[in-house]
Amino acid sequence: MKMNPIQMVDLKSQYLRIKPEIDAAIQHVLDSTAFIQGAPVKEFEESLSQYTGNKYVISCGNGTDALTAALMALEIGPGDEVVTTPFTFIATVEAIALVGAKPVFVDVCEETFTLDVNRLESAITPKTKAIIPVHLYGQCADMEPILNIANQHNIRVIEDACQAIGTEYHFADGSVKQAGTMGTVGCLSFFPSKNLGCFGDGGALMTNDADLAGKLRSICRHGSSERYHHERIGLNSRLDTLQAAILTVKLDHLQEYITARKEAATYYHAALSDLDWLSLPASSPYSTHTYHQFTVRVKNGRRDALKQHLADKGIPSAIYYPVPAHLQPAYASLNHHKGDFPMAEQLCEEVLSLPMHTELTKEQLDYICHTIKNFPL
Questions:
Q1: What are the backbone dihedrals phi and psi of residue 100, each rounded to the nearest 5 degrees, phi first?
Q2: Domains, in order of start, for the chain
Q3: What CA–CA distance (Å, rounded) separates 262 from 126?
Q4: What is the pTM of this model?
Q5: First CA to last CA across the chain, in angstroms?
Q6: Contact between 38 and 241 (Cβ < 8 Å)
Q7: Would you call 95 helix, strand, or coil by DSSP?
Q8: Residue of 186, 234, 305, 351 with fewest CB within 10 Å of its CB?
């Protein structure tokens, strides 16, 4: 029997597994014709609140809008600084720039690729108003020391949890919290390839602060709490009813999706751990890993060659990310140069993400790992 083509993300097979549930949810919305702010939007927000443990969930148009709205609600703008990592999807930095604030970068850890807490305090100035740690690839940044430093300096923490829904952080006292539930605001993306993905764009904000939740909801609705009355400048950023209905169905399957990803990751680790030229994702003592991506590091300058080798054998792979934020032309005004954040720069030259999704078969994993093992060094 011929093996199905390997995909980076197999959304079609995932859909077919739950097709009756998804189709019924979509049909319900079509029948209601309540395409904006229909009942499924509130239902999804309530379900996500229950899942994460956050009191307030405000759905929005996408993860970038979530980050932007969070900064707006905290009244961060021109003259302010926001500390984050240069090794992230550009939306993290873009949101800071969009509100007129200055992104201030802190290099990342070699083990987890997340913000290096040992370098954090030196980046804080009297102008620092927030820290945006990025929970990358499905693993949390080290939140306990980040929160402690933020509290000492009276700085807000906005969690970029767009790649880490369902990931758990373990505090020193034994308590456990989900990604996106520890800071002042947590931001999520439901881009189709995410662990919880819709069939278009979608996002959400999470907080336990009632007043802040009200501001966030207002901002995402044109700065309005009452129709045609606008108390603040806002965005047009709503999760449409069709996407909310789809996400409500998929949220019920999220834990099985996470389990499937962990099983695939376990297979990769077992099969590839003996390759000394390949560095596999490290396990963190403080965070679980939900494997939004399975990202390896290829040593000896051979990353691009391995990527081509895999492509020649019909195996997709991806580079997240080829250029760090501080070296992007859009942020040249920050006057950073190559060498400013060496770990982030090195990762951009070495990282390669292998196929990772809920529908990977043993046959496909066998083939991927066999192909990697036979890569000519």
A1: 90, 5
A2: 11-251 (3.40.640.10), 254-373 (3.90.1150.10)
A3: 42
A4: 0.97
A5: 32
A6: yes
A7: helix
A8: 305
